[in-house]
Amino acid sequence: MPTLTTAVIGYLLEPFLPDLPESLLASLSAYLDLLLKWNARTNLTAIRTPEEIVKRHFGESLFAGLHLPESATLLDYGTGAGFPGLPIALMHPEVRVTLAESQNKKVSFLREAVRSLGVSIDVWPKRVEEMPSDLRFDCVTLRAVDDMEAALRGASLRSRSKIVLLTSQGAAQQIEISGFQEEETIHVPESSDRIVTIFART
Ligand SMILES: C[S@@+](CC[C@H](N)C(=O)[O-])C[C@H]1O[C@@H](n2cnc3c(N)ncnc32)[C@H](O)[C@@H]1O
Protein backbone atom coordinates (compact mmCIF):
# COMPACT_ATOMS: atom_id res chain seq x y z
CA MET A 1 0.00 0.00 0.00
CA PRO A 2 1.33 3.47 -0.79
CA THR A 3 1.85 5.83 2.17
CA LEU A 4 -0.69 8.27 0.74
CA THR A 5 -3.31 7.42 -1.86
CA THR A 6 -3.37 9.40 -5.09
CA ALA A 7 -6.67 10.90 -3.89
CA VAL A 8 -5.02 12.29 -0.74
CA ILE A 9 -1.99 13.57 -2.70
CA GLY A 10 -4.35 15.24 -5.19
CA TYR A 11 -6.28 16.83 -2.31
CA LEU A 12 -3.09 18.17 -0.66
CA LEU A 13 -1.88 19.58 -3.98
CA GLU A 14 -5.22 21.18 -4.88
CA PRO A 15 -4.15 24.73 -3.75
CA PHE A 16 -1.00 24.54 -5.90
CA LEU A 17 -2.36 22.80 -8.96
CA PRO A 18 -5.92 21.51 -9.22
CA ASP A 19 -7.02 18.50 -11.27
CA LEU A 20 -3.71 16.74 -11.66
CA PRO A 21 -3.92 13.71 -13.96
CA GLU A 22 -4.04 10.31 -12.25
CA SER A 23 -0.82 9.20 -13.99
CA LEU A 24 1.10 12.16 -12.51
CA LEU A 25 -0.38 11.53 -9.05
CA ALA A 26 0.67 7.86 -9.29
CA SER A 27 4.25 8.90 -10.14
CA LEU A 28 4.29 11.37 -7.22
CA SER A 29 3.02 8.63 -4.90
CA ALA A 30 5.83 6.29 -5.97
CA TYR A 31 8.39 9.14 -5.62
CA LEU A 32 7.07 9.92 -2.12
CA ASP A 33 7.38 6.29 -1.01
CA LEU A 34 10.93 6.03 -2.32
CA LEU A 35 11.91 9.32 -0.66
CA LEU A 36 10.46 8.22 2.69
CA LYS A 37 12.24 4.86 2.45
CA TRP A 38 15.62 6.44 1.69
CA ASN A 39 15.11 9.29 4.17
CA ALA A 40 14.72 6.78 7.01
CA ARG A 41 18.39 5.78 6.60
CA THR A 42 20.08 8.74 4.85
CA ASN A 43 19.28 12.38 5.42
CA LEU A 44 17.92 13.54 2.07
CA THR A 45 15.45 16.12 3.34
CA ALA A 46 14.74 17.67 6.73
CA ILE A 47 11.04 17.66 5.92
CA ARG A 48 9.97 14.21 7.07
CA THR A 49 6.21 13.85 7.23
CA PRO A 50 4.51 12.63 4.04
CA GLU A 51 1.93 15.43 4.05
CA GLU A 52 4.61 18.14 4.45
CA ILE A 53 6.75 16.57 1.70
CA VAL A 54 3.75 16.64 -0.62
CA LYS A 55 2.85 20.25 0.18
CA ARG A 56 6.25 21.87 0.60
CA HIS A 57 8.38 19.91 -1.86
CA PHE A 58 5.92 18.62 -4.48
CA GLY A 59 3.48 21.57 -4.23
CA GLU A 60 6.12 24.29 -4.60
CA SER A 61 7.95 22.40 -7.38
CA LEU A 62 4.77 21.80 -9.37
CA PHE A 63 3.68 25.41 -8.84
CA ALA A 64 7.00 26.50 -10.39
CA GLY A 65 6.30 24.00 -13.18
CA LEU A 66 2.95 25.65 -13.78
CA HIS A 67 4.73 28.96 -14.41
CA LEU A 68 7.68 27.50 -16.29
CA PRO A 69 8.78 29.64 -19.26
CA GLU A 70 8.69 27.74 -22.55
CA SER A 71 11.89 25.67 -22.58
CA ALA A 72 13.23 22.64 -24.41
CA THR A 73 16.01 22.05 -21.88
CA LEU A 74 16.22 22.71 -18.14
CA LEU A 75 18.96 22.42 -15.53
CA ASP A 76 18.00 22.06 -11.86
CA TYR A 77 21.04 23.48 -10.07
CA GLY A 78 21.69 21.73 -6.71
CA THR A 79 18.60 19.52 -6.93
CA GLY A 80 19.16 17.60 -3.64
CA ALA A 81 16.45 14.95 -3.55
CA GLY A 82 15.05 16.28 -6.84
CA PHE A 83 13.41 19.63 -6.08
CA PRO A 84 12.08 21.32 -8.05
CA GLY A 85 13.47 19.50 -11.11
CA LEU A 86 11.98 16.03 -10.72
CA PRO A 87 8.32 17.04 -10.22
CA ILE A 88 8.76 19.55 -13.08
CA ALA A 89 10.06 16.73 -15.30
CA LEU A 90 7.06 14.55 -14.40
CA MET A 91 4.73 17.45 -15.23
CA HIS A 92 6.55 18.45 -18.44
CA PRO A 93 7.78 15.31 -20.21
CA GLU A 94 8.44 17.48 -23.29
CA VAL A 95 11.27 19.29 -21.44
CA ARG A 96 14.69 17.61 -21.30
CA VAL A 97 15.58 17.97 -17.61
CA THR A 98 19.06 17.63 -16.07
CA LEU A 99 19.32 17.27 -12.30
CA ALA A 100 22.71 18.49 -11.03
CA GLU A 101 23.78 17.30 -7.59
CA SER A 102 27.28 16.93 -6.13
CA GLN A 103 26.61 14.73 -3.05
CA ASN A 104 27.01 11.01 -3.76
CA LYS A 105 24.19 9.71 -1.56
CA LYS A 106 21.72 12.13 -3.18
CA VAL A 107 22.96 11.15 -6.64
CA SER A 108 22.33 7.46 -5.78
CA PHE A 109 18.81 8.34 -4.70
CA LEU A 110 18.17 10.41 -7.84
CA ARG A 111 19.38 7.57 -10.09
CA GLU A 112 17.12 5.11 -8.30
CA ALA A 113 14.17 7.52 -8.52
CA VAL A 114 14.70 8.10 -12.26
CA ARG A 115 15.03 4.33 -12.86
CA SER A 116 12.02 3.28 -10.80
CA LEU A 117 9.77 6.07 -12.12
CA GLY A 118 10.77 5.18 -15.69
CA VAL A 119 11.35 8.80 -16.67
CA SER A 120 13.82 10.24 -19.12
CA ILE A 121 15.87 12.60 -16.95
CA ASP A 122 19.62 13.22 -16.97
CA VAL A 123 21.55 13.25 -13.69
CA TRP A 124 24.79 15.25 -13.55
CA PRO A 125 26.60 13.70 -10.55
CA LYS A 126 29.07 16.50 -9.86
CA ARG A 127 29.22 20.22 -9.28
CA VAL A 128 27.64 22.33 -12.00
CA GLU A 129 30.97 24.15 -12.35
CA GLU A 130 32.46 20.86 -13.66
CA MET A 131 30.10 20.65 -16.64
CA PRO A 132 31.66 21.22 -20.07
CA SER A 133 32.14 24.98 -20.31
CA ASP A 134 29.93 25.39 -23.39
CA LEU A 135 26.93 23.43 -22.01
CA ARG A 136 23.83 25.67 -21.81
CA PHE A 137 20.15 25.15 -20.98
CA ASP A 138 17.08 27.20 -21.95
CA CYS A 139 16.09 27.48 -18.31
CA VAL A 140 17.88 26.98 -14.97
CA THR A 141 15.92 26.40 -11.76
CA LEU A 142 17.29 26.91 -8.24
CA ARG A 143 15.85 26.33 -4.79
CA ALA A 144 17.64 26.42 -1.43
CA VAL A 145 21.17 26.15 -2.83
CA ASP A 146 23.68 26.88 -0.04
CA ASP A 147 25.76 29.74 -1.48
CA MET A 148 23.01 31.45 -3.45
CA GLU A 149 25.17 34.29 -4.74
CA ALA A 150 27.71 31.89 -6.27
CA ALA A 151 24.93 29.60 -7.51
CA LEU A 152 23.13 32.46 -9.28
CA ARG A 153 26.41 33.49 -10.92
CA GLY A 154 26.84 29.88 -12.04
CA ALA A 155 23.23 29.70 -13.22
CA SER A 156 23.66 32.86 -15.29
CA LEU A 157 26.55 31.19 -17.16
CA ARG A 158 24.44 28.07 -17.86
CA SER A 159 21.17 29.73 -18.85
CA ARG A 160 20.47 30.65 -22.45
CA SER A 161 17.26 32.46 -21.60
CA LYS A 162 15.57 32.13 -18.17
CA ILE A 163 16.35 31.52 -14.49
CA VAL A 164 13.54 30.41 -12.19
CA LEU A 165 14.31 30.98 -8.52
CA LEU A 166 12.21 29.48 -5.72
CA THR A 167 12.92 31.43 -2.55
CA SER A 168 11.50 33.56 0.25
CA GLN A 169 10.51 37.20 -0.11
CA GLY A 170 13.16 38.29 2.42
CA ALA A 171 16.01 36.50 0.62
CA ALA A 172 14.88 37.79 -2.77
CA GLN A 173 15.29 41.44 -1.80
CA GLN A 174 19.04 41.50 -2.30
CA ILE A 175 19.12 39.43 -5.46
CA GLU A 176 20.57 40.77 -8.68
CA ILE A 177 21.82 38.59 -11.52
CA SER A 178 24.26 40.12 -13.95
CA GLY A 179 22.88 39.96 -17.52
CA PHE A 180 19.34 39.13 -16.35
CA GLN A 181 16.32 41.17 -15.29
CA GLU A 182 13.38 40.19 -13.12
CA GLU A 183 10.40 39.38 -15.31
CA GLU A 184 7.75 38.10 -12.92
CA THR A 185 7.30 37.21 -9.24
CA ILE A 186 4.48 34.92 -8.18
CA HIS A 187 3.47 34.07 -4.60
CA VAL A 188 3.38 30.39 -3.74
CA PRO A 189 -0.02 29.29 -2.36
CA GLU A 190 -0.29 28.18 1.29
CA SER A 191 2.69 30.35 2.33
CA SER A 192 3.10 33.92 3.52
CA ASP A 193 6.64 34.39 2.16
CA ARG A 194 7.53 31.82 -0.51
CA ILE A 195 7.83 33.15 -4.05
CA VAL A 196 8.77 32.01 -7.54
CA THR A 197 10.77 34.67 -9.43
CA ILE A 198 11.49 34.42 -13.13
CA PHE A 199 14.53 36.24 -14.55
CA ALA A 200 15.05 36.77 -18.28
CA ARG A 201 18.30 37.37 -20.12
CA THR A 202 18.55 41.03 -21.13
C1 LIG B 1 19.88 22.57 0.69
S1 LIG B 1 19.97 21.45 -0.64
C2 LIG B 1 18.47 21.86 -1.50
C3 LIG B 1 18.09 20.86 -2.50
C4 LIG B 1 16.85 21.15 -3.32
N1 LIG B 1 17.10 22.15 -4.35
C5 LIG B 1 15.65 21.51 -2.49
O1 LIG B 1 15.13 22.61 -2.64
O2 LIG B 1 15.20 20.67 -1.68
C6 LIG B 1 21.21 22.12 -1.72
C7 LIG B 1 21.85 21.06 -2.59
O3 LIG B 1 22.61 21.68 -3.61
C8 LIG B 1 23.77 20.91 -3.84
N2 LIG B 1 24.75 21.83 -4.47
C9 LIG B 1 25.19 23.01 -3.97
N3 LIG B 1 26.03 23.61 -4.83
C10 LIG B 1 26.11 22.79 -5.92
C11 LIG B 1 26.83 22.86 -7.16
N4 LIG B 1 27.62 23.90 -7.44
N5 LIG B 1 26.67 21.87 -8.06
C12 LIG B 1 25.86 20.81 -7.77
N6 LIG B 1 25.17 20.68 -6.62
C13 LIG B 1 25.29 21.66 -5.70
C14 LIG B 1 24.16 20.40 -2.46
O4 LIG B 1 24.93 19.23 -2.53
C15 LIG B 1 22.79 20.17 -1.83
O5 LIG B 1 22.36 18.84 -1.97
TrEMBL record:
Its EC number is 2.1.1.-. It is found in: Cytoplasm. The keyword rRNA processing applies. Its main location: cytoplasm. The gene is rsmG. Belongs to the methyltransferase superfamily. RNA methyltransferase RsmG family. One of its GO terms (cellular component) is cytosol. The keyword Signal does not apply. S-adenosyl-L-methionine binds at G78, F83, V128, E129, R143. It is an enzyme of class 2 (transferase). GO terms for molecular function: rRNA (guanine-N7-)-methyltransferase activity. HAMAP family: 16SrRNA_methyltr_G. Specifically methylates the N7 position of a guanine in 16S rRNA. This is Ribosomal RNA small subunit methyltransferase G. It comes from the Bacteria. It comes from Granulicella sibirica. PANTHER family: S-ADENOSYL-L-METHIONINE-DEPENDENT METHYLTRANSFERASES SUPERFAMILY PROTEIN (PTHR31760:SF0). Keywords: Cytoplasm, Methyltransferase, rRNA processing, S-adenosyl-L-methionine, Transferase. InterPro entries: rRNA_ssu_MeTfrase_G, SAM-dependent_MTases_sf.
